[in-house]
Specification:
By secondary structure, the chain is mostly helical. The chain has 12 helices and no strands. The protein is globular. Belongs to the binding-protein-dependent transport system permease family. CysTW subfamily.
Amino acid sequence: MYLNNEIKNNIFTALCVLFGLVGVGFLLIIICSLIYKGILGLSPAIFTLPTAFGGLANAILGQIILVFMASVFGLFIGSFAGIYISEYSKNKAVKNGLICVIEILLSTPSIIVGVFIYAIFVSTFGSYSGIAGSLALGFIMLCVVAKTFFEALGSVDPKLKEASYALGASKRQVIMSVMMANAKPALITGVILGVARIAGESAPLLFTNANNDFFSFDIFSSLPSLSVSIYEFSLSSDEALRNAAWSGALLLLIMVLGANIISKLVFLKERK
């Protein structure tokens, strides 16, 4: 009997390892193809010309603006939501309901968020805009930030809170000076991962911001977007534009991967 269970366990382990290697193998093939084709498509024009002339300079700048605005919105609302759920929500049913809603929103396809913002914002004002695009991205980020905050604050040792209250500290002082200070590594990591999550999104922007083929800083109209430009270039019959799409995808990979690496380094540094 013991031998049979051991054989079954070995078979199951071998299958898990096999499928894991298959998954990693496909991922490596995708990454290697992206790096190879992305490097071949790199040229000075990518970083100097707007998308109207086959470059991505305006798209890179527009993506930075959109992500920055979305990060401000997502961090502001998400942090307050996470703190409220963790420290101010006394009703257990309400607290569990809010957590459930955040979990559902995190698993919702990003295109649904784009359609939602389109229905309540774009259709109301009658035009695409950078504000609408940043709201869609910010909505996605605030869910990540809210979950990070209530989980990080919830992991702080309750004895630290009790000791702070015993010394006469107010609730705001306990949250800001004790709990957030102790949860700092997890909070910073969560914020960076939230930025990385929205940096490569294109589906929400198609319904809210659309795209602009020229340099633009008007947030009340369509801003250029790297992720949407990559999508549009990939559909082109022009080989040069398709190569530019590969290069843009490589730049997005570097941005997202870089944000993840930075978050890990910050987490490890703050824990020491």
